[in-house]
Structure formats: structure tokens, C-alpha cells
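Reviewer 2 asked us to include a model.

Predict the structure of this chain.
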Amino acid sequence: MDGAPTTSGSGGGGGPAPFLLKTYEMVDDSKTDEIVSWSSNKNSFVVWNPPEFARVLLPTYFKHNNFSSFIRQLNAYGFRKIDPEKWEFANDEFIKDQKHLLKNIHRRKPIHSHSNPQGSMVDPERAAFDEETERITREKAALEANISRSKQQRSAVKLQFEDLKQRVDNMEQAGRFADVLRKGSCESYFC
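Predicted model (C-alpha cells):
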């Protein structure tokens, strides 16, 4: 391909992984520069238009159109996002006009959360996601506790109100009774 020295073979062979070759070809194709291209220093690449990248280029080079899956593959091969403001990725062995270096890039062993020993390294994006999920879960539990407390307080206030209303009603009734008694006693004693 493009005259780059590669050795065929799979598994433990010396050639670059198909994912790396396809990604290199996609980035290196000047016809796609409006969507994806090499950065100005030629040692990273930028996805300028992720929706078009997913819609047009991914299905052309891969069997899917999922941008997130492409990013996961990059991470699996040791690429890192180098600019938080744009989709720019780098790997020390992924350089323009240095296609022969691709053979030095190897896929990391996948990390599965259920097989992770305690204290082992986890993908930073996944760790941040898990941390955010835990924070939101704690916030949700705190809000639910506040709602429950508010409902209990409301119920207590309602009971106090009902009790107070009953007392007022009893006092009014007692006052009317006292008035009746006073009137009755006044009539009989000529007040």
C-alpha cells in the first residue's frame, strides 16, 4: 500500500494492524482534508467535522459509522486527545510520511471492569465517567432524602394544623356552650 514497507500476517506478525493502516490512509487522503487531516506539525491528526466523518468516512473505511467506537479504537492503540477544544489525536508512531512506524503501534489489552483488580489503571475517560455517575447518584439520593424529609415535615405540619383547628373548634363550641349556660342562668336568676 502506497509503497510503505509492511509485512503480511496476522496475530503476532510484524505488520501494522488494519485499523491503523485504514486510519492512516483516511487521514493522509488530501481529498478528505475538510473532514479529517494531519495537523500543521504533521505528528497528529484532526477530525474537523465529526458528523461528516461518521456519516461518510467511517463506513467507507470500516464496517460502522460510530464515532465513539472509532475513538475507543484510537484509545486502545495508545492515541491520546491532545487538544480539548477539538478532536485532535496523536501517537508518537503515527506521523505523516512515516507510515512504516505504524508497525510499532500495538493494541493494549482490553480492560474490563468486572476483571479489573483493585487499584489497577483504568482508562481516564471511563474513570471520569464513573466518577460523574457516582456524583450524580449521590446527588439523586440526597434530593430523594430531601423530598422524603419535606413530605414528612408537611405531614407533621398538616397534623399540627388539624389538631389546632380541632382545638379552635372545641374552644368555639365551649364558648357557645358557656354563652348558653350564662343566658340560661341569667333567665332563671333574673340577671
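Confidence is low (pLDDT under 50) at residues 1-11. The beta strands are 36-38, 44-47, 80-83, 87-90. We have added this to the supplementary material.
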